[in-house]
Amino acid sequence: MPLQNQPKLIGLVVVALLVAAGTGTVIWMNRNDASSNASSGNTPTDTSALTQSSPTTAPSSTPVPSTATYKDGTYSADGTYRSPGGNEKIGVTLTIASGTISDVSIKTYGSGSDAEEYQAQFKDGISAVVVGKKVNDVSVSRVSGSSLTSTGFNNALEIIKSDAQA
Amino acid sequence: MPSKSLSPTLKPSIEFEALGTHWFIEAESGITPRQERLIHTTLGIIDRTWSRFRDDSLVATMSRRVGEYPLSVTDRGLMQWYHLLYKATEGYINPLVGQTLADAGYDASYRLAPKTTIATTPSWDEVIKLTATGITITQPGIIDVGAAGKGFAIDAIADLFKTQSYTIDAGGDIRIKGTPQTIGLEHPLHRGELIGTITIKDKSICGSAGNRRQWGDWHHIINPRTSRPVENVIATWAVADTAMHADGIASALFFVPPEQLTQLGDFAYVIMYENGKVYHTNTQDIRLFT
User: Chain B contacts of A14, Cβ < 8 Å?
Assistant: First the structure.
């Protein structure tokens, strides 16, 4: 797996994570289920509304890899997907400044208490808080995980790009 | 793995794209041209059997016509494993999510005629009956094996090597035999960073993450019940004897705690939350960067 030490905006990657999870469903809800309550249109809003501080562990700007220009602003998209428990929703907000993604935030609509319950159920595991190390600084023969520059990531980025050009 | 001097017809390793992911296969004593052909043939058969995006695949046929379908022993093994995952996760892992996707028009062949209402993912017993020789489909249902299919394919390749030592890496899902190897656990949010390592020998490690297209073009994670911790779990890894088991358990760990999966056999796990917390099996083979 090709690995580079390209710094990536944490938030962008988070957005990829969540958008990719919801991307397919956003697309199909949009395309095929007009009566659905999935709201997936990107709505520019006042950029000043965005007050999150940038992550300190990564540069706060990631160029959108294209020659196209994007309107500055904050874009929000809700993605709906279907689960055995019913429709679930995530919200993604992305700020574009000077043509680059400058901030990302995620809103989850699920209840948080169940997640805590889940964590409390661990009995035999060990808990730790991890920090990332550059892959070149560690001696490994292979890397296991999901590559974030996979097609899914790029697909998610394409959707945001096309919306930002609209 | 050090390669010895090989005859010109043997390749120390091969790399290619198949089943929507990148494959790296290395064999200590080299890969013969015949093995290389067999590898591609094997993956081709798996694609024609299990890809729901192929009109001519077995699962596509099953979606159009109810009835009894014979399956090979290994293919039955995949379905039996899926049934165990289905039961252990109380339906969170369900091969019939394919139907939901198709109803929604996600499947290209259905896009022209999306249904006005999207069917709830049916239960296993409504659609599937496993028999001694195959599978009986009792109502039209599209089967999607995204939660364990890649591991299944890795095992099929591993079987081709018999006594040879090998490394099979399909997009970060890995099975090895021979020399122990230290595998990096890729940080799910920071590309190019690792959160730790795990040393394995004669085992498989598979990972799962929310962003992941688990089975290349075959699968989107569409049923993360966010009332469960999907919003908090950002990556899981499982180590088991076979890749099919490791793959399925890694997928299941997104939905249920490890204690609920002990009936599925021995495995080690690493579960990472978005706050950077990690839960893992108490074993010295796992080293985390803290």
Answer: 189, 274
Two tokens, residue A143: 């890397």
d(CA B179, CA A165): 52
Is B222 in contact with A35 (Cβ distance < 8 A)? no
A29/B257 CB distance under 8 A: no
B176: helix, strand or coil: strand
Counting the structural domains of chain A, the total is 1
Name the residue type at position B109.
S
| Residues 14-73 (B) with a CB less than 8 A from some CB of A | 22, 24
| CB contact (8 A) between residue B22 and residue A16 | no
The set of residues, in sequence order, having a beta carbon less than 8 Å from that of B166 and lying 6+ positions away, is: B25, B26, B27, B28, B158, B175, B176, B177, B178
The single residue listed with the structure tokens 């591991």 is B151
* Candidate CATH numbers 3.40.50.12780, 3.10.520.10, 3.90.1150.10, 2.40.160.60; the one for domain B179-288: 3.10.520.10
Tokens of B24: 């790296």
In this structure, are residues B129 and B175 in contact, taking their beta carbons and an 8 Å threshold? Answer: no
Q: Do A143 and B116 touch (CB under 8 A)?
A: no
Question: Which candidate, B207, B217, B213, places its Cα nearest to that of B47?
Answer: B217
Residues of chain A in contact with residue B17, where contact means CB-CB under 8 angstroms, are none
Chain B contact for A12, CB < 8 A? no
Per-residue pLDDT of chain A (166 residues; tens, 9 = 90+): 343 333 333 334 333 444 444 433 333 333 333 333 333 333 333 333 333 333 333 333 444 444 455 677 776 665 544 334 444 444 556 666 666 655 555 444 443 334 333 333 344 566 677 777 876 777 778 888 764 333 333 334 445 555 666 5
Three-point CA angle B257, A83, B51, nearest 5°: 95
